[in-house]
Design brief:
The complex is a heterodimer of chains A (384) and B (309). By secondary structure, chain A is α/β, with parallel strands linked by helices. Helix content of chain A is 37%, strand content 20%. Classes of the chains: A alpha/beta (384), B alpha/beta (309).
Chain lengths: 384, 309
Amino acid sequence: MGADPQGVLTGVHFLDGDHACCEGAIAAGCRAAFGYPITPSTEIVERIALRLPLVGGVFVQMEDEIASSIAIQGAAWGGKKVITVTSGPGMSLMMEHVGLAAMTETPCVFVNVQRGGPSTGLPTLPAQGDMMQARWGSHGDYEIIAISPNSPQECFDLTVHAFNLSERYRVPVLIMMDESVGHMTERVTIPHAEQIEVESRRLPEGPKEEYLPFAPGENLVPPMAPVGEGYRFHVTGLTHNEKGYPVMSPDVQDHLVRRLLDKIRLNAEDIAMVEEDQIQDADVVLVAYGITSRVVLRTLHLAREKGLKVGVFRPVVVWPFPEKRLRELAERVKAFVVVELNYGQVVLEVERIVGGRVPTVLVPHGGGALHNPEDILRVVEEAW
Amino acid sequence: MEGMNVFAARLFPKDNRFVSGHRACQGCAEVLAVRLIHQILGRNTMVASATGCMEIISSSYPDTAWSIPWIHVAFENAAAVASGIEAGLQILMKKGRMPKRKINVVGMAGDGGTADIGIQALSGALERGHDMIYICYDNEAYMNTGVQRSSSTPYGASTTTSPAGKISIGQQTWKKNVTMIAAAHNIPYVATASPSYPFDLAEKVRKAAKVKGPAYLHVYSACPTGWRLDPKLAITIGRLAVQTGAFPLYEIENGKLKISVKTPKLRPLQDYTKPQGRFRHLDDATIAEIEKRLFEEYQKLERREGLIF
């Protein structure tokens, strides 16, 4: 289905990643946003505050991130597509509600424009230190989807995609930007509304009185009814049965939580999104995501000039990790070099999947700046 | 009107604990308020600061402006950190690990860090009755991140997240009255103050330091950058805020309210809104509506004056 033309600013623009993300949300049909100012994500909120009311939407600045992250879920149950945006310290406050959204299967989009951490850290400088928080930050077992754009154009495209995934799987989707991508200004082409693929919420069919809001449907995902249309249901963070009512039993816990995990794990190949460069004949593969996946392109170029057979593997969707493809590569390459703006997070997942078949080397960086491509090249040369 | 107070220019302490070299904008009245307050509080003071302009402009190396113990933790918890410091000092003194003496424990935050994200920590600290001073520096928006509305932003003001335009007049809610919320905790001292009235401010800080238990100061802090105001008018605007009723100065000492700077006849609000870009879009009818509300609020204060509540 195409996008609602009212929200789509079709044309060629010169936008930063933050603003492009806002346009992506509006194009995807987001009409309710709640937020709180925090560097380096404030520009998204500012543009949403300006733009949403003009397309019949609502933006509310809340009193903190805790409130923002739960207000979006109220609006989602009211039938809206919703977004909230923040950065590391705010994400820490939102974490309880990421877990709630996973438990109540509320479609919603969180944007984390990552900055250096921990704590207040480097408010105005980039990092990729929140990748494991995105995956595991809330308590209990759950799965989310995390997407990592590397350009303003992708901030638009992947924000639309994030909303689609969130509706398809009834799951919180985290857009893991970083300060560099958020504040980088580039050409952004916004297509015609009918060319933008937008998925809408899958509504229940059949008699209203028989509706089970948490019974597995297509892909294990239950259809979702908006409140106020005559469907009777109950939404709770407690362990609940298919009707939505709390039941404290190991059986119901297993039935529910296993499905919450499986709807993502068993559909991981549908969710996976990978970008590869010169991988066909590569001996050493650079693994990078987000802004770092652009830095390693320079390393790739330098290595190829030297005659080194290097390729790039970029998980665009980082969680769930594109496990199948990486496992295939592990059968034939000589080494993986993981480049990330932290001291080793996604590398742990790569190591797990590679399983010791070939060496996996980390090129860490604490954040505050980007890697030097020549430093990465030195690690690549040593990996031979 | 300042004659009522004991302070005069020659009595102002010269010992300055918030020194020059910080990065505040030209005409920042908040930084002036911070300096005046710490001239009164002196060196036996510890400060817990929330995230905000004052953290950024005063703490970064090599521009550190503090010559007393100062800590920044996060955005929502200045009052909780100050509570912890106060409790820690009490224990150390009780155990004889440090000499018993009066130490001013200060929690400071902006209006966002007080009225929005920090109000839970503030209420907790006031309720528990820690012997501390909490100071809210109110510049009526999130200035550190670039002028977003807070619940302390006045009605009608245009900010980046309450932009004025075709379908909105800007901020659509009335300024949250955090001073009265603090007073509702029945703490010994609550006051509003302004660096445009330095002697009144100094007297209030002195009282806040003297009382046993929590004291709350709500300090008007003109922000020329965020308000789109000529920096040279930062002090004038503070006086106009009092004279128009936009920010009345009063104190509640042991439950008894006293208006500190009396304004028998409020000035027209236009005098206050005109120099500020954030109000430039307002039409006469809206200004009249705000004026009426401010007048009613001021009358309420006058009616409560002298009453114990």
